[in-house]
Amino acid sequence: MEFQNLLIENKERIQYIIINRESKLNALNKDTLAELHTAFFEAFNNPDVGGIIITGAGTKAFVAGADISEFASLDVAAGTALAREGQKEVFDLIANGNKPVIAAINGFALGGGLELAMACHIRIASETAKMGLPEVTLGLIPGYGGTQRLAQLIGKSKALQMILTADMITAVEAQQFGLVTHVACPEDLLIEAEGLLQKILSRAPLALAAAIHAVNAGFTDGVNGYETEIAEFGKCFGTQDFQEGVAAFLAKRKADFKGE
Ligand code: COA
Known about the structure:
Elements: E1 6-11, E2 14-19, H1 30-45, E3 51-56, E4 61-63, H2 76-95, E5 101-105, E6 108-110, H3 112-119, E7 122-126, E8 130-132, H4 146-154, H5 156-165, E9 169-170, H6 171-177, E10 182-184, H7 189-201, H8 205-217, H9 225-236, H10 240-250
Parallel strand pairs: 2-3, 3-5, 4-6, 5-7, 6-8, 7-10
Antiparallel strand pairs: 1-2, 8-9
Helix pairs in contact: 1-2, 2-3, 3-4, 4-5, 8-9
The structure holds coenzyme A.
């Protein structure tokens, strides 16, 4: 599908999804969110795609937030619907995806931009990146999962400090907090992201999906993560990838996983 606000690039089994509204610092308007839904849905269902790297066009911003110009006319019902639909169609879709998604944070990741990065499975940042949830400066709170995912990732106390002050943190601080796993110089950011994803893609694809599902289960209300782990662990024994992984280990050769 052709997108107006996204660039899609494929490099072997890696798909790049690049948010391409540079003049607006890649802010997430309704159209961009709809395109993100379609792009991720297609990527998760495309057997040629093993994993995804999402980043922002240009050097200044990953995503500087939801598009504030679209907020002005919203009332209580419309605001509630915006958050509910956005969470379901984009942010939860990514978080619960069956393929690994890495956010390569190349600049400002604010508000919905940081929420988008936090919905991804792994985050790495350029040393020029700045991250924050500034919604309270607008009379709002994060609405795309930010109050939940930031607290899960860095702990309640630091999350509340970031959300209540609206302060931005640097990439180095984000790494110290555990919000990003790695900081790279700007020119190396995508090289590092690709290296990390290539390594992940050498592992068994169905096991990757099972691991994402099991880890997420522990953060889902009403779901027993240990039970999910047991079920996913058991299911792995029924895959050809498991047969191949064990056979390759015993034969001292590299496994050739098919995702079956
Ligand atoms: N929504 C809509 N437009 C946005 C935007 C957003 N979240 N963030 C940036 N833009 C637009 C600006 O309005 C400006 O557009 P214009 O050139 O048509 O006036 C353009 O992107 C460049 O931004 P600008 O503010 O001029 O850049 P800057 O370098 O001075 O400041 C930021 C950068 C990120 C500090 C600043 O843009 C900002 O605070 N953005 C909003 C962040 C935010 O509150 N996000 C949470 C939303 S819930």
